[in-house]
Amino acid sequence: MIKIKKEKEQPYEEKDPIWFKEVTCKVCGAKHKTPRVKPSFIKVKSVDSDFHKTYEFVNPILYAITTCNECNYSARNEDYDKVTLEYHKEIIDLGLSIKNAKKNVIFKNDRNPSLDEVVNKHLLAIFFYKNFKPENPNIISGLYMHLVWLYRDAGIVEKEKEYMKYAIEYYIKTYERGTQIPEKIGIPGIMYLIGELNRRLGNYTDAVYWFSKVIKSDMIDNYPNIKNLTHEAWEKINEEKKKMKE
Ligand SMILES: [Zn+2]
């Protein structure tokens, strides 16, 4: 009888949260490898009032953007892999002009990216998303939120606040357009986030304006979580105002 030796130790790669995917740039055709997080390593520890998540092992936001080193076309991983650009000549022209003028920035794309690298990839992605016709403001606000959270994690408050303002601008655009709204939070969730970011910036009048819109919304009963978060945030403002009077 042949005995099959069972491996007791897990193979190295199963303990490694990062893997390298080979991708092909949809703008210039360059092939390159980019770090990605294995989904089984994404474990959320806690969630803040603006949906910022703290993770157990690895923060997937550090690996959320894929960038081509040759033309710098940058997009969220899911878009980089799937979105074809044949109807987006504006994006192809933009990437090729960067490549031809040799204005491309070269990223290391290793398993431990610096804050600078992550921020710069996000800024490039935002730049490309703003050039899509039509632009999708919900994607752009989501990327600004990544920058808000990265700077919060790094303890750089001024930058966190700066990007909150940009996120508000694009959430307002999302709200006004009323399409491509994330299903999970709906329009009430977008209004709540505009209010909550204003609250975090100390703009209480604007925050209360948006919170009252959430509560008055006829869709609010479909989003009990958003309703609770709005009441909690509004309560924090009332407490803060009381303190200021004392
Ligand atoms: Zn490229």
Notes on the structure:
With 246 residues, this protein is mainly alpha-helical. The chain has a domain at 181-246. Helix content is 52%, strand content 11%. The protein contains 9 helices and 6 strands, in the order H-E-E-E-E-E-E-H-H-H-H-H-H-H-H. The strands form 3 sheets. A two-stranded antiparallel sheet has the order 1-2. A two-stranded antiparallel sheet has the order 3-4. Strands 5-6 form a two-stranded antiparallel ribbon. A hairpin with a 5-residue loop joins strand 3 and strand 4. It is globular, with a radius of gyration of 21 Å. The termini are far apart. The relative contact order is 0.08. Zinc ion binds at residues 25, 27-28, 30, 68, 70-71, 73, 95.
What does this entry show, briefly?
The protein is mostly helical.
